Amino acid sequence: IRDGNVWLVEFYASWCGHCQNFEPVYQQIASSVHYPGSTARIAKIDGDKERAISSRFAVAGFPSFFLIDGWSVYEYKGSRKASSMVSFVKGGYKDTEPLPFWASPMGPLGQIQAVLVIVGAQVINFFYWMTDEMGLSPTVTAIIFAGGFMFSGLVIMIFIAIMVTPKIKDD
């Protein structure tokens, strides 16, 4: 985001015939926009394997294309011709509306979703660590998790109740 470059990102799946057929065109696009001094960059994400980031971008089918310019995200919905896509990357995207910031992958909801995915992955890794490394059964581990989450939820509810309770002023 902060590198000053414009990124065209393709979400693809290795099993997708359209993606496989589009590969030479995408290579041509990369050759056309990525040269010394250019601020355009090209990236590919295997959306079938990287489901969390595909979810953040609301990818509904493959291939899907998004252009990222700083905090703004534009979905490319034009022709799949190399010339059209190169024109879009080289500034044509400025004639289209970006995704609404609040709902874009770079906006608040996208950032919250990213945090939830990261925390969820850490919880799952911790679960496997407890079962594999510590030797606990999955049932015991699940009971420990449930107790920990219930305790955490109770502490958060008490904290919120204390924070929103009106303070009595002594006069």
Automatic annotation (TrEMBL):
Residues 1-94 form the Thioredoxin domain. GO terms for molecular function: disulfide oxidoreductase activity. Signal peptide: none annotated. Keywords: Disulfide bond, Electron transport, Endoplasmic reticulum, Membrane, Phosphoprotein, Redox-active center, Signal, Transmembrane, Transmembrane helix, Transport. The keyword Secreted does not apply. It is a single-pass type I membrane protein. This is Thioredoxin domain-containing protein.
